[in-house]
Structures are given as C-alpha cells and as structure tokens.
Amino acid sequence: MTLKKIMTMNMRLLLLLLFGSVVMYTSCQSTSAPIDSLAARATENTSKDQILFRLVTDETDPAKDYFEIDSKDGKVLITGNSDLSLATGLNWYLKYVAGIHLSWNNPSQKLPEVLPLPQKKIRQATAMKNRYYLNYCTYSYSMAFWDWERWEKEIDWMALHGINMPLVIAGTDAVWRNTLMRLGYSKEEADAFVAGPAFQAWWLMNNLEGWGGPMSEKWYEDRVKLQRQILARMEQLGMEPVLPGYSGMVPHDADERLGMDVSGKGIWNGFVRPAFLKSTDPQFNKIADIYYDELRKVNGTAKYYSMDPFHEGGSIEGVDLTEAGKIITAAMKRANPEAVWVIQGWNENPRAQIYAGIPKGDIVVLDLASEIKPQWGDPDTPSKTPRPNGYDGHDWLFCMLLNFGGNVGLHGRMDNVIGGYYKARNSRFGKDMTGIGLTPEGIENNPVMYELISELIWRPEEFTKEEWLENYSKARYGAKNKNAENAWKQL
C-alpha cells in the first residue's frame, strides 16, 4: 500500500472519530435531538442541564438494545443505542431512582431542582427487538376522536415504554375511499362503504362496512393531516409503524358490481360483512396495487403491514389458504420488498395453511392474548384452537390483551403475565419469540399492567409480582410506604 493511500485512510479515520465525538457531545447538549425534545415534554421543560443523553452503540453486543443510567459531573447521564433506548432509560430513571411515575393519568411531571443520582450504574439490555402496541379496537374504543395534542402525549408514552412497532390506522378511511373511486365507485358509494370513526376497528378487520358513516370532507382531510403528524413524530423517535395492508377486502356487492370472484359474504354480529376477493381472481393484484399506491400517498412506505383475513368467522369456503397467503405476501412485497406481514393470533386465525408457503421472517404473529388464551404452543394451557407446534417456526410476540370493550376492571392476572412470559421465553418456542405486544381493546385504565409487561423484556431473571409491586408502589407515590405496598399486594 502506498504512503499516499495510508495517509488518506488515516485522514478518513480521523474525520470519522471527530464526527463521532461531535455526535456524542451534541446529543448531550442540544435541544434539537428527539430524545431531548421528548424529555422536555415529559418533564415540563425541567430536564435541561439536569439530565444528559449519550447515543452510543454497544460494539460488544450490537444485536441488543440497551440503556445505562449513571452520573457525570453531578448530573444524570443516560446512555443508549437509540433514541427509544434512551427514552426507556429516562422512564426507568424517573421510576426507580427519582420516584416519579408517568402514565396516562399523569403523562408529564416537573422535576425537583436537585435530582437524585443513581447509587451505582444501572444497565438493562434486551435481544427482544419487537415491541408492538395497540389493537384495532383501541382506535374505536379509546382513540376515535383524538387530536394531535392527545396523540403527542401517547407517542411520548410509547417511547418511554420502549414501543417500536405501533399500529397506526388514522387516515386509512381516505385510502379506501380513493381506492374505490379509482375502481369506478362514486364518492357517495365509496363513503357508504367506509365505517364511522367508532366502528373502523371492525371495518378494517373485515367484519362490517359502512356503519356509523358517512363522514364529512373535512373529516377525511383532518385524518390524513393527523396521520402524517403521527408518522413524522414516530419516525423522529425511531419507531417502525404498522400500517393496514391489503388482504382481499372488497365491498359486499363487488361480485355484482365489478364481476369479481368473492367468498366470505355473510353476517357478523348482525352486520353485513365485506366480501373477500379470492386471491386467484385476476383483479386481486390490480386492486392490491391501487390500494398500496393510495396508502403510500398518505403514509409513505412501511416495513410492517397488518392484515387479518377471515377474522372472527370469515368464510374460507373455496379458498386455497396457502395460495392466498403467498399472493397476499407478494402484493405486500411489491409495495416494499423488505415488508413483513403482521397478523393477529386470535381464535382460529391465522390458520397454519395461510403461512405454510411464507418464508420465515416475512410474517410475525401477535399471540394476541397470551395472558389468558396463549396459542404459542403452551402444553399446560388447553386452547379451543390447539397449536401443539405453535406458529410452526414463524416469528411471534408474547402479547397482553387485558382489556375487552374499553371496560374498567380491577384485575390483571399478574402471575399469568410474568410466569407466562418467562415460560414462553424458556420453552422450545422461545427461539422464535422476537418480543412483546401490548394489545388492549381499550386504554387509559389499569396502567400498572402495562408498566409490568413493558418491563419484562428488560429483566433477564423471573421475579414475583410482590417484588415488582414494592418498586412500583414507591415509583407511583414517590416514597416507600408499607401500607401502600400491602394495598397493592391485596389488589
């Protein structure tokens, strides 16, 4: 190697080192970094000059996410490999060192003038890369009419709890409206297919159509604007949103209107179901491509797409499930060759045949209610839908549903959540478990349970609910109190 080449390589290395130093320094000092902005919102502008952040990849184990909580020059120093790891570390510090608990009931809190420093360095790491959040139902029970101010708080809550795969469906009504109009439906006819805000969960899961609509022109405009604000903030924080993909839903009259080969026509809980366009119909790919084009116009391109054909009793008569799974996947891959299908493990879905022809890594299953109806292959929990082979080697997430119908209840099954997670992780199916999911039908209640499950991936050793509740109680009330601890244990 010539001297000139050596000098050039050394200069490049020096520039890289200098650049790396600047990045680390500015992440500690600048208020323009996503984590600094998040910290300012969560602490009501009292974290500046008290909490420092340092973004550093752990070269010893780059496959893991991690955060460290330490001190430097009398200030709190949080180090992590991403903005989300730093946000999770911030929340961990506030809870377990400062005794400040942020939840839906109290999403921000001013810090004291003098912050407590950790007595020793705290380090948490996880190989569980996927942390999913939300359920289609959450959008209808809890979020149907949220504005940006409320959404901003929720995205901060997600980041503080390490969420990196949130389901994001605002604006999908506009996507469907535009798709149908490109297929020849009038604006009024398209509006008649789109469900109203409080019913869109079941519409997007292929259970009903039209109910609760139509919406105004301004509604569509506002939802698209809101969706873009949501996605922009999530991108800043490093989240990978899960968008509704296309798996064959069409209006119930598509066979007569467009001459399509459909199945699945019927009734769901008294509502007329949309039809399922058979993937073997030559028009399937045409419609899928139009849908993904309209989806891209509103949302851009995503890594994850959520699709749940045949949800809760959808007819599969005359459908080759394995072939359908391949074609649905291929349509998604045309939108993004790196895309991954996210599907709910709920009741009989997904049937093993639908993912039989899909390569590992192209689909991830949400074991939707692992705390009460595990379907991942738990031999000790009989299921109405036995899955002795789990999800046949495909990636899956251990999820907690907890809340049905937005109902408020003093329950939690903490032992099931803790014991079930570690049991699954240590089982023969654990090698395919890539993370956790929070899949509530309704939120803004029972925050203790969501704190619990979001922490599991950061705790390598199994623990008892009594041990965990002692620390939760201290964080919630800001001080250790035996009466509070006992009350929580009784609850």
Mean pLDDT: 91
Question: What's the total count of β strands?
Answer: 17
Strand adjacency order, main sheet: 6-5-17-16-15-14-13-7
- Uncertain ranges: 1-31
How is this structure best described in words?
The protein is α/β, with parallel strands linked by helices and 491 residues long. It is built from 16 helices and 17 strands. It has helices spanning 3-29, 34-42, 83-96, 136-141, 148-160, 172-182, 187-193, 200-204, 217-237, 254-258, 283-299, 321-335, 414-426, 447-456, 465-477, 482-490, and strands spanning 51-55, 65-72, 75-80, 122-126, 130-133, 165-166, 242-244, 249-250, 262-263, 267-268, 271-272, 275-277, 304-306, 340-345, 363-367, 395-400, 433-438. The strands form 4 sheets. Strands 6-5-17-16-15-14-13-7 form an 8-stranded parallel beta sheet. The longest helix is centred in the first third of the chain and has 27 residues, at 3-29. It is globular. The relative contact order is 0.09.
